[in-house]
Hints:
Elements: E1 2-4, H1 16-24, H2 41-48, H3 60-77, E2 79-81, E3 90-96, E4 104-105, E5 108-109, H4 110-123, E6 130-136, E7 140-147, H5 150-159, H6 169-180, E8 186-192, E9 202-204, E10 209-213, E11 221-232, E12 238-248, E13 254-262, E14 270-276, E15 281-290, E16 298-303, E17 314-318, E18 325-331, H7 337-343, E19 348-353, E20 368-373, E21 387-392, E22 400-401, E23 404-411, E24 415-418, E25 437-442, E26 446-450, E27 453-458, E28 466-469, H8 482-501, E29 507-508, E30 513-516, E31 523-528, E32 531-539, E33 542-545, E34 552-558, E35 564-571, H9 575-578, E36 587-589, E37 595-598, H10 605-640, H11 644-650
Parallel strand pairs: 3-6, 3-8, 8-10, 9-36, 10-37, 18-19, 18-20, 20-21, 21-28, 29-35
Antiparallel strand pairs: 1-2, 4-5, 6-7, 11-12, 12-15, 13-14, 13-16, 16-17, 22-23, 23-25, 24-26, 26-27, 27-28, 30-33, 31-32, 31-34, 32-33, 34-35
Helix pairs in contact: 1-3, 3-10, 4-5
Amino acid sequence: MPELHNPKGLFLLLLAIPIVLLYVLKVRRERRVVGSTWLWAEARRDLTARHPWKRLRAEVPLALQLLGLLGLALAFAEPALRGRGSSGRTVGIVIDTSASMGVREGDATRIDLGKRAAHDTVDRLPPGGTAFLVEAGREPKFTLAKETDTRRLHQAIDRIAATEEEGDLAGALAIAADRLRSEPDAELVLVTDGALAKETPLVAQGVPVRIVKVGARSDNAGIVAVDTQADGSAAGSAKVQTFALVHNFGAVARDVYVTASLEDAEAPVASRRVLLAPGVATPVVLGFQAGPTDGGKGIVVRISGSDALAADDVAYGRVPMGARLPVVFAGDQAGSWARRALAADGSIALQELSLAQLFRVNVDPEALVVAEGACPESGASEAPGLDWLVFLGPGATQTSCSGVRFGPSVENPRVTSWDRADGRLRFLTLDGLHLRRARTLVSSTALMRAEEGVIAADAGVPGRMVTVVGFDPAESDWPLRASFVLFMRNVVELARAHRAQGTTAPGRTGEPLRVPVPTSTTQVLGSGPGLDDRAFVVRGGLATIPAMARAGVYHFRWTAPRTGAVVVPVNLVSAAESDVAPRDVTVTTTAGGAATKAPTRGAGIELYLAALALLVLLTDYWYFTRAARKTTPSLRRREASLPGNVRKVAS
């Protein structure tokens, strides 16, 4: 079935009305005196008629002119054949659903044009034929298995939509070809715009492939990279800088505004006017002052104006919690040496709590928690914050902490060895350290050893660093040594590095997310584009979130064992998808298969129609001038047959 990419071209057919009128209207002739009316008999009949119209007669010039007009109208309408009849009884339809398929082409999008081609393929299935659908997103997905019911096939095609993620056309083509390889009479139909995100060769072994390309050249500019950094304290205002890389894939320069705003506010917090040179990526820096409560909020970066693809005109980030590491000190002893060491560190933001307050006050989920005097009853693995450092003192009554069991208390233990390879103990020495008392620890990952047993151990769990020290620094001469300051500094720097790794770092569309939560949490609720308080299962302190098809700011929260939340921005940021110019698609097939292309946007058909219209009009001109040349000699012969006196008057 033909398809018109520019139906407005058919308005040219309205010119047929004045052309026909010229053939039915009688000519209004000027009155003149002649010697005889014998040669003007036909004109005289027109003059004596009562009506201005004459009977429409079939004339060759009229037919040629109407035929030429029809050819021109069809040429301007840009016809294309959406596909030929399906030759196989089993047809696999692979539809590209990547972000570039959301580009608008006139009144429709590329995915709409692709779905029309898929509908046409289903309509052309032979009696008893079967078909299946595969969506080529970031991960290939079978939309519908083999089906003979064309109604269900059409319904499944209608449900397909373009995503905001990169596509894996090679993977989708491979699994579709594998499904068809055992079929004796099969065909694979590939519907795409050719804007491939991956350079992986397209291969379909042993299956004939028909390629249906949709889309035309479109100018587009998009955000292809985004990052956010902060300089300042998390406890106060911080200078936030958002970096965006905007690439103009068009052929002309664009003057745009790049703005940044917080997700819960309409007014931008930063804006810049940028001239985007054609074919060049332009870096843009947007700076603003974040308030004390803005840490962790989502940031929305936009470029003004509208172009071919709207999905890449916006990107998302998160306001950092501050350049200084949040540290929570929890203890009930006055004059704590650990608190003094932390307070002297200008690179951290210190929050002081009692042990009883630790589980009742909101703590930054990325904070380092230092607990002195006892291990929290819930255990460090389930406590707030990210990493933990626990100093055991005489008041500790628990029998274990984060999986490390406590042994008996020993007096005046002498340190015999320590793990120099561990980052917490680098660049320091514990030779000659004097301890008044310590609790021995039952652990296979010892950090410090005494003659009586382990006195410091690693109790880390997946996603969390936990350090358990079996003695109170106040009951030793350690705080008087440089090694104590180095130890505290090493723990802080490891916590900072762990925080920077960010398991909750910005994600990408089409990729799963990992959200760290307390190990005893069993369920996380997520909200964002396409999510409405959807529940996700937690295992081992990590909530694995399935791939998101849409970009945006996603919120995840939990209520047990305590209330917590985290914001995760998800972006497209793909130069391959933002470059929406269609490209040639080549599919490699083995023996028994052949790749053919279906015409798109006329595929040159309009040129042939225009040439045919020109040929018809030239034929009309030749016919008209031929008729005039042929008529002149006949008139001369007719005049020669007249009497001499009449001939003289007529001349």
